[in-house]
Amino acid sequence: MKAMVLSAYRTPLRMEERPTPVPGPGEIRVRVEACAVCRTDLHVVDGELPPGKMPVVPGHEIVGIVEAHGEGVTAPAVGQRVGIPWLGHTCGTCPYCTSHRENLCDDPLFTGYTRDGGFATHVVADASYAFALDGFDDPVSTAPLMCAGLIGWRSLKMAGEARRVGLYGFGAASHLIAQVCRWQGREFYAFTSPGDQAAQQHALSLGASWAGGSDEPPPVLLDAAIIFAPVGALVPAALRAVRKGGRVVCGGIHMSDIPQFPYSILWEERQVLSVANLTRDDAREFLALAPEAVAKVTTTTYPLERANDALADLRAGRFQGAAVLVP
Questions:
Q1: I want to staple 88 with a disulfide (CB 3.0 to 4.6 A). Which of 109, 154, 165, 268 is the partner?
Q2: CATH classification of 149-274, choosing from 2.160.10.10, 2.60.15.10, 3.40.50.2300, 3.40.50.720?
Q3: CATH code for the part of the protein at 2-146+297-326
Q4: pLDDT at 215 (0 to 100)
């Protein structure tokens, strides 16, 4: 097999030839058809998260075909298309796992971070954390659903019954969950980097009620705001944009420091919440509604050996939607 490997933080990935992996008990081996590139991959490469597995193959928005079963596995079937997300394994016994909060597990494994991921031709995964993708016929457009879609969905659920939703950072997650907002009858308001006309036009093409820079106030007060950009300064900006009793949901795994802000913009029962990982129930819910709710997945494809280019282009904001590696 071939894999793009991170051997030290803040260094380019290197292509390696490796033996094709053999799945262990409870595992499956998957031939990767597509793997989307997530901002979390940048956080892994840049060493902005606590140290994980090293060396490691990044990538956690994986779509592929099951090739082999490990001991004790009967499903998903060999030959079946599956998706493999960020959450790769949980202990099943900690207080969080036993109270339906496996996203907060005390002893988890994460795909592409603490176990090898999908920037490769093959990957081994826990069979219990792979999702059947029957009816999802295009691996490239499906791959971003496995994190951008799932985290976007969990973030939207945490926004509650908000009818007017602000989306800060109009990238992979926002362009998917914006379409879910429209499908559910909500309005969405897109906040981009100041002056990013391309992202604003992308948002408007997907039905945004308004699109502007993150330094601009929206034309109306919002019921909730979801922040996908890893910029702590957006938290007070979003608090100023939401009405009394509104929520600001931080959807990323990493964010720069939140600056000091006056209590007055938090007062009147505004809330700031964070999203951590996902649960398998989140995935089942989102994958059930995605075929109807998400009409268009905007992607830019790269061959596997150009993974570094995809990461650089993501960092620089050179494309709309999501980058996808195709082995």
A1: 109
A2: 3.40.50.720
A3: 3.90.180.10
A4: 96
